[in-house]
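Sample pair:
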Amino acid sequence: MVDKIIAKKPDTVSLFRLRLGVVFIMFWWIPVYLAVPGIVSGLGLSNSAHATQAVLIIVITVQTIFGVIGFLLVGKSLGSNLKKVSPRKAPKVFWRMLWSGTTEIPDSDLRKKKPAKDNSKKPRHFWNHKQTK
């Protein structure tokens, strides 16, 4: 079992991890802190400002932890694959991976390779520029 996990190719995307990460990010995005007064009264705590602040800090901390875990899951799953595509095509490739779970990237979505620079010519500066007559 451990050998299968270690032998996994780095470009493969775990569909479960990807979708779980997106759900965690969506949970992080939802303003749960608006429900804190209801949570405080539901727990039977007095409606004091001290109890409300304590519950608010707990809710925000838990929600932030879920968001960080979500970003780590999604980033680890997609990092190497999204580096291969242009930034303009990244949302399309991300959606395709999220929806279908395939990691195949069409050639049309791949980043164009820049031609190598010719470093044989040295830059000319104004102080060593020879004037021709």
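Residues 1-10 have pLDDT under 50 and may be disordered.
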